Amino acid sequence: MTKKQKKMLVRILVTSVMLIVLNFLPIGGIWLLAAYLAAYFVIGYDILQKAGKSILNGRAFDENFLMALATVGAFVVAVWTKSGDYVEGIAVMLFYQIGELFQSYAVGKSRRNISALMDIRPDYANIERDGELVQVDPDEVEVGSVIVVQPGEKVPLDGVVLSGSASLNTSALTGESVPRDVHEGDEIISGCIDMSGVLKIRTTKAFGESTVSKILDLVENASSRKSQSEAFISRFAKVYTPVVCIAALLLALVVPGVRMLAGLPADWVNWIYRALTFLVVSCPCALVISIPLSFFAGIGGASKEGILIKGSNYLEALSEAKILVFDKTGTLTQGVFEVTGVHHNTMEEERILDYAAHAECASSHPISKSLQKAYSKPIDRSRVSDIEELSGHGIVAKVDGHAVAAGNAKLMKKLGINYVDCHSAGTIIHMAIDGAYAGHIIVSDIVKPHAKEAIAELKHAGVKKTVMLTGDTKRVAEQVAGELGIDEVHSELLPGDKVAQVEALLANKGKKEKLAFVGDGINDAPVLTRADIGIAMGAMGSDAAIEAADIVLMDDDPLQIAKAIKISRKCIGIVKQNIVFSLVVKFGCLALTAIGVTDMWAAIFADVGVMVLAVLNAIRALHYDK
Predict the structure, then answer these.
(1) How confident is the model over 116-126, as pLDDT tens digits?
(2) Does 147 score more than 90 pLDDT?
(3) Cβ–Cβ under 8 Å, residues 179 and 167
């Protein structure tokens, strides 16, 4: 409990004790009124202060004003009728404060849970000076500096591992409990916790641009982007509160006045009491508190699972997603090329890979690296000479004195070599040795382990159509789409073509349907911005894509998309439940109060009880049901 909550608890206990004691004291008249007023001020002075400030600031119609007016009115009625029953006014304020304490504790608990989830801000960075480690503020570390991370410490900045190896706890970032192993040459992001081994890291980003800073900024600013439900509640409260105040005034003055003109007993006390009860019932606390809390908890629950949602408006839009459009490379596939086949004539497979890896040894292209990785032996550059790269064709070189050509069909045609066409999906590297065709190597982008399962989960979650947009060849695109079960595929697209395809899909979708685009590259940024909801792969995605996206998946697993949709729909379901429940109970009790069926105690339940139940329901959004 916070100090403020403890102070409120003390006031509640003191007031309760005073009410019990006053019930047995043998006093009456002005002294009894003074004693009950003392108890009233102990429990309600802060509400009276807030009500006074609201009136002075021109915002009289809020819950504090309604509560103050109703409870003071209850005292006035008790004095006017000389009944000596001052308990109701104090009881209304007491139970209202109990409800406020409960709500404060619930909101604080959800904030603490989210703070614990996002407790990734590093306190310091280690820099080596004169053989000793010096702790400095991460903001002071320049790009290109070398920092040292020891076991148990947080990685303070993004960078590349220069030396050392370790297992990293990435659960606060990705929601994934399995540690990630890093070694020399691996990229590393801030916010992870080093579980074993000392790492030396060369920083690649300033602290303000690092992953941890962007995550914290996203979560902290998420509440500034309001959903339609929250906007509705704000508009509703502005109209609702003045209307109920006018209705209470009509009950207190107009109804008994009309009765008096009609020759019936005016019964002023009864109608004023009904009006005061009407005000207590009318407080829209359950809606005003529980709806923003539901979205706050939903965004926090998603963060716990490694899904960063930039605002409750995007959470709400995601719940209506019916069309999912995917980029291919790095989104559904790993974006890492591997040799998946070697088709040869008379030469052995190992010799073909030997010649190909050495011929490509001077290139940094991903396909060249995949050839060198498949060869799996050290490259001896002394064996290679006369390397010549032919743009758009491939490479020719001499390996061990033999003329080697490695490239596409255009290269074979240019050299006048008869080659064998290959219908396998992937990039085909044709090989010729000393002018004779030796075979070809197939290099493919590997599908992500959970990609097929992710598409199935999306369809199970109610997504009507899945589409893949890629710049890759038609053959490769159709092979990947068929393997994953994607409904529609468009290939050989430029970035501008992807935007045009998304706009066509947007033009043909239903009014209440939303289109989400999932991508990871710089060229995906325009499409992410154009879609109703842009989803970026955060761990390996580009900064431009993450900046343009509305939702960021921190572990690049496409299964997270279906999880995000389920979280959003659960959150929106809770919001709708709270709106319907609160309004039905509220208007039902208002009607019963107006006709005199309910008293002040029923009003307390209608206000405080409904608020407590709505808050309890809202907190459910903090947890994802796996």
Answers:
(1) 545 566 778 99
(2) yes
(3) yes
* Res 536 pLDDT > 90: no
- pLDDT single digits (tens) 24-41: 888 878 888 899 899 999
Q: What per-residue confidence (pLDDT) applies to 214?
A: 66
Give one DSSP letter per residue of 255-278, joined into a string: HHHHHHHTTS---HHHHHHHHHHH
Rounded to the nearest 5°, which phi and psi values hold at 82? 55, 35
pTM score = 0.66
Give the single-character DSSP code of 329: B
Q: Is 42 helix (H, G, I), strand (E, B) or coil?
A: helix
Burial of residue 412 (number of CB atoms within 10 Å: 0-12, 13-18, 19+) = buried
User: d(Cα 453, Cα 484) in Å, to the nearest integer?
Assistant: 8
What is the residue whose two structure tokens read 């002294």? 31
Whole-number pLDDT of residue 285: 67
The candidate with the shortest Cα–Cα distance to 45, out of 25, 19, 27, 72, is: 72
Mean pLDDT across 513-529: 80
**Looking up tokens 């004195």, which residue turns up?**
401
Residue 87, beta-bridge partner list:
none
Residues pairing with 394 in the sheet: 390, 407
Number of H-type helices and E-type strands within the chain: 22, 22
Q: Beta-strand (E) ranges in 471-566?
A: 488-490, 514-519, 533-537, 551-553
Buried/exposed 599-618: b ≥16 CB within 10 Å, e otherwise = ebebbbebbbebbbbbbebb
Q: CA gyration radius for the chain?
A: 34
Backbone torsions φ then ψ of 169, nearest 5 degrees: -90, 110
Read off the pLDDT of residues 537-560 as tens digits, 9 standing for 90 and up: 876 555 656 677 788 887 778 889
Rounded Cα gap, residues 607 and 584, in angstroms = 12
Buried b / exposed e across 359-370, counting CB within 10 Å, b at 16+? bbbebeeebbeb
Label each residue of 431-463 as H, E or C: EEECCEEEEEEEEEEEECCCHHHHHHHHHHCCC
Of residues 283 and 393, which shows the higher confidence score?
393
Q: Chain centroid to CA 427: how far?
A: 37
Q: Torsions phi, psi of 599, nearest 5?
A: -115, -170
Residues 6+ apart with CB under 8 A from 211: 158, 173, 189, 190, 191, 538
Q: What's the CA angle centered on 120, arms 114 and 123, to 5 degrees?
A: 130
- Catalytic annotation, residues: 327
